[in-house]
Amino acid sequence: MRLPLLTSLALSAHALRIIQSNDDGWAELYVRSFHDELLAAGHDAVLSGPAENRSGTGSTDIEPSPRTSPCQYNSCTPQSPPTPLGTNATSPRLNWVNSFPVTAMRYGISTLGPQLWSGAPPDLAVAGPNVGSNLYLQVHFSGTVGAAVYAAREARIPSIAFSGKSTGTLAWNTTPVPARSAVYAQLATKLVNTLTAGGKPYLPEDVWLNVNFSEVDGEECKDVEDFRWVLTRINVGVFSRPDVQMCGRTRLPTETEVIWRGGCWVSVSVGDAADKSTADAGRQGVVAERLGGLLGCFP
Ligand SMILES: *[C@@H]1O[C@H](CO)[C@@H](O)[C@H](O)[C@H]1NC(C)=O
Ligand SMILES: *[C@@H]1O[C@H](CO)[C@@H](O)[C@H](O)[C@H]1NC(C)=O
Ligand SMILES: *[C@@H]1O[C@H](CO)[C@@H](O)[C@H](O)[C@H]1NC(C)=O
């Protein structure tokens, strides 16, 4: 159940400038539902996403080129002369960049966001929710992760990458909005609000959070409150040093174990932006403290 009044009251004190990107394209519904949910929560969100699906392009960053064909789902028409960037004429918070996810994030942080924020930088960068999950080996190739890692490492903006296991492409104007898009947007907003509630700094330096949601399917996992949140590792940790102590253990479960288990789960991994691997126990501990009672144990 949602408590809109409480939420907006609690949040008015923490309205953030949030830059959004993704890799499935600026007109994909998951990123638009998240955008709407952030605005509804009182945040000042600006989207800067690729003009089309650029999934699997990792950290590729190439200057945008003039767009000569319509964007994904016919969501933009080419201008004459063609332009490398574009804005929804009636919603200037919604922007496309004719290039890769990292490039779109870079333009969002340096230009598109500050244009609407009187020159101020974003407080937080978010990528996704990505449409679909793969095994952890995919993290290196994920454009969603690439965009979040760029923000954390190059732009020094705390960042979060979100990914939802439920797949299927959805255009931005799909109605009614399917449950999976709405639930992922609410879960992502809940994490943003919990992480930032205590003020700055939201995350340790050079860290991004990699957050995965399990499937929203039929009657299963249709409510935010159905989900249980677990601190995880990105990769298996057989030879790694101990993780932060949680639930009486010093080895966290992997995202794969949690997300592929069945049931309603959110995995939250603390990522090291230097190499896209799992951050050390010290930095995991800082995040665990921030998220506090949101986190539970994995059986
Ligand atoms: C542009 O914004 C308008 C008004 O918010 C909206 O109705 C329309 O669907 C948007 N189109 C795209 C492609 O974002
Ligand atoms: C984007 O393309 C990739 C493959 O290139 C595909 O797996 C993914 O589902 C696509 N995403 C959307 C939202 O269509
Ligand atoms: C978690 O999310 C990342 C980023 O979208 C993705 O690359 C990875 O495959 C996901 N992992 C699992 C286990 O779903």
UniProtKB/TrEMBL annotation:
The keyword Cell division does not apply. Keywords: Hydrolase, Metal-binding, Signal. Residues 48-91 are annotated as: Disordered. This is Survival protein sure-like phosphatase/nucleotidase. The lineage of its organism: Eukaryota, Fungi, Dikarya, Ascomycota, Pezizomycotina. Residues 1-15 form the signal peptide. Residues 18-225 form the Survival protein SurE-like phosphatase/nucleotidase domain. Residues 54-78 have a biased composition (Polar residues). GO terms for molecular function: metal ion binding; nucleotidase activity.
